[in-house]
């Protein structure tokens, strides 16, 4: 005798097992075939966002150097990417700011001041696509790889990059400035009468020094949101000086040292052309050659002159 009730009880179980088998098969195909490609696409989108923020922050730095006004700004992006539907595992990354070269130094009889650079970089960790990172150095953004290959993003090759760094439009000609005030002085005798002799004296010099510095918070890792932050502060101090010396670090790469030296030299040549009577010596080179580039530059006054030092400090930090 056939037990129909038993057959009817088995049928739903078999159907459910078949449905589960189909679901497992579909999920297996999804995870083994589609998920890797989807995670690659998500990682590509993530790295594209990082690149966009690096380029934007580079422009922010340039504007801050040119404007020389106090303020704060930031650019945020995720350190990790590659999360997709039913696979939320993300890659990670490291964002770090480091001190770079000292560019130039200004010394007097009472103090010293200098201008320096920073560099910052994003490095991927356990990337789902390529080990592609980004770095900023000498005013431009590089694409970096795990094979220690560095490629400038904004220029076709390194020659174009060097030309851009040395160009008048680059930030390095904006790191130093010199302005001065002068007035005529009429000589008098012991009775206070004018003798007819007139002097042209420099009464005040204002030197603007812009420097990029590393912030207290300089390292972030993980796969969450990180932030590149920029804060601009301005400090002004005044001294009475008889001597100013300008020296450029000749070890800086990319032609940066040449560009900065030429900028300082041009300012001193202009200052020297005024032929002030209270200035003893201005060491500068009106017709500078390659052999002159890198030599120290000086101003010597006969009597103390008021010197204002305006320090524009751009602090770059890595934060969460």
Automatic annotation (TrEMBL):
It comes from the Archaea. Keywords: Membrane, Transmembrane, Transmembrane helix. The chain crosses the membrane at residues 12-31. This is Archaeal Type IV pilin N-terminal domain-containing protein.
């Amino acid at each position: 005798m056939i037990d129909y009730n038993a057959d009817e009880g088995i049928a739903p179980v078999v159907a459910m097992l078949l449905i589960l088998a189909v679901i497992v098969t579909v999920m297996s195909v999804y995870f083994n075939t589609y998920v890797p490609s989807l995670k690659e696409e998500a990682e590509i989108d993530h790295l594209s966002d990082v690149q966009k923020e690096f380029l934007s922050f580079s422009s922010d730095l340039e504007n801050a150097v040119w404007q020389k006004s106090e303020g704060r700004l930031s650019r945020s992006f995720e350190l990790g990417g590659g999360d997709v539907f039913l696979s939320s595992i993300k890659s990670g990354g490291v964002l770090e700011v480091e001190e770079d070269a000292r560019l130039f130094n200004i010394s007097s009889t009472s103090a010293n001041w200098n201008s320096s650079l920073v560099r910052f970089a994003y490095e991927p960790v356990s990337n789902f696509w390529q080990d592609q990172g980004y770095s900023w150095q000498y005013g431009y953004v590089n694409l970096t790889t795990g094979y220690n290959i560095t490629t400038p993003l904004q220029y076709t090759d390194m020659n174009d990059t060097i030309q851009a760094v040395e160009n008048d439009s680059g930030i390095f000609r904006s790191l130093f400035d010199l302005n001065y005030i002068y007035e005529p002085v009429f000589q008098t005798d012991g009775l206070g009468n004018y003798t007819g002799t007139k002097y042209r004296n420099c009464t005040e010099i204002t030197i603007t020094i812009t420097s990029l510095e590393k912030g207290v918070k300089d390292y972030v890792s993980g796969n969450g949101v990180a932030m590149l932050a920029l804060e601009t502060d301005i400090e002004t101090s005044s001294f009475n000086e008889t001597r100013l010396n300008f020296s450029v670090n000749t070890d800086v790469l990319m032609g940066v040292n040449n560009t900065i030296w030429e900028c300082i030299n041009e300012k001193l040549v202009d200052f020297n052309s005024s032929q002030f009577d209270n200035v003893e010596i201005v060491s500068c080179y009106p017709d500078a050659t390659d052999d002159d580039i890198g030599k120290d530059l000086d101003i010597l006054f006969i009597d103390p002159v008021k010197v204002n030092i305006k320090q524009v400090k751009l602090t770059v930090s890595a934060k969460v």
